[in-house]
From TrEMBL:
It holds the Pfam family NAD_binding_10. Residues 18-138 form the NAD(P)-binding domain. The keyword Oxidoreductase applies. Keywords: Oxidoreductase. The keyword Transferase does not apply. Belongs to the NAD(P)-dependent epimerase/dehydratase family. Dihydroflavonol-4-reductase subfamily. This is NAD(P)-binding domain-containing protein. GO terms for molecular function: oxidoreductase activity, acting on the CH-OH group of donors, NAD or NADP as acceptor. The lineage of its organism: Eukaryota, Fungi, Dikarya, Ascomycota, Pezizomycotina. InterPro entries: NAD(P)-bd_dom, NAD(P)-bd_dom_sf, NAD(P)_dehydrat-like.
Length: 319
């Protein structure tokens, strides 16, 4: 990564919440490559310590540490983890699929506010929240053209989860999950405005196997996990990025599009029939994508990683 315009000095400590996750691991690596010290939070140090230290210590000895945070909602849960840190990156909110909106939404909001309060208490200089495309729009595309901007939120799922009749269906649980993500981010921005402080592999395997019952949602936009990590790091360390929503959106592809591309290079991996209800996607996200690409280019990348490269990495890793 090409580094300049730094908001926090090289060798500062940056906390990565959910360091053992898919995005979290990549974010830790990008921070270490950039010259920062990383303190990762996990729910069990005993479970993850060996493989994570083996992964990072050989290249960056003494630069990586793990701390345990079991309950994100517990008051003071992050106080020790954030002590002495210059930056915090919240890469992974708890993922809960449950039909009861109170159980999902309250947890998402409380855990987000908890990290913000702890960061303020520890005088953390930079905080980056990794949200979700489901906070922006619903997964149910109805064929209506839409233009997405950084001001969009998933009000459809919010209204259904908060005001609609409860259903015991997967679609309902997905709406509740999406509402939790949207309200967590709205709560984040509300807290920022009020306090004014001094930022999918399993489903793809199922889609390739034609196991559509295990693929509960259509794809919105794809991006390489390394690009997502780069944007998270850039948002943390670049002084020119502040109070800004950044869309790690690269390109929209359907599950059938991905099956077609994999079939061309590894035909034996694609089984069963294509998805019978291939929904169109008409949302336009031109401006946010251009902004994300601008940031990637500013740190020395050519732009987003091409989908063919993403698929090659996925196939090499998972098959």
């Amino acid at each position: 990564m090409l580094l300049h315009d730094l908001a926090i000095p090289i060798d500062s400590v940056v906390v990565v919440i959910g360091a053992n996750g898919f995005i979290g691991l990549e974010t830790c690596e990008k921070l270490l490559q950039a010259g920062y010290k990383v303190r990762g939070t996990v729910r069990s140090v005993e479970k993850y310590s060996s493989f994570m230290h083996d992964f990072f210590d050989l290249k960056w000895p003494g630069k990586f540490e793990l701390v345990q945070v079991v309950d994100f909602e517990e008051e003071g849960a992050f106080d020790e983890a954030f002590k002495g840190a210059a930056g915090v990156i919240y890469t992974s909110m708890p993922i809960v699929f449950h039909p009861d909106p109170a159980k999902v939404i309250n947890q998402s909001v409380k855990s987000t506010i908890n990290t913000l309060e702890a960061a303020a208490k520890a005088r953390v200089q930079r905080y980056v929240l990794c949200s979700s495309s489901k906070a922006v729009e619903t997964a149910r595309y109805d064929g209506t053209p839409r233009r997405l901007t950084v001001n969009n939120y998933n009000t459809e799922s919010l209204l259904k989860a908060c005001c609609g009749p409860r259903e015991e269906t997967l679609e309902w649980s997905l709406d509740v999950f999406s509402a939790g993500r949207a309200l967590a981010e709205l709560s984040f921005w509300s807290w920022i405005g009020e306090k004014n402080p001094p930022s999918l592999p399993i489903m793809l395997k199922a889609a390739l196997a034609g196991e559509w019952s295990s693929v509960p949602m259509p794809i919105s936009y794809l991006s390489d996990v390394q690009d997502t990590a780069r944007l998270l790091v850039a948002a943390t360390i670049k002084s020119s990025i502040s109070n800004e929503r950044i869309f790690a959106y690269y390109k929209h592809l359907t599950w059938n599009d991905l099956r077609t591309r994999v079939r061309a290079v590894r035909p034996g991996l694609v089984k069963g029939e294509d998805h019978p209800l291939q929904e169109g996607y008409l949302s336009s996200v031109h401006e946010p994508i251009c902004r994300a690409e601008e940031i990637l280019k500013d740190i020395g990348r050519a732009g987003f990683t091409h989908e063919d490269s993403m698929l090659r990495d996925f196939l090499d890793t998972c098959f």
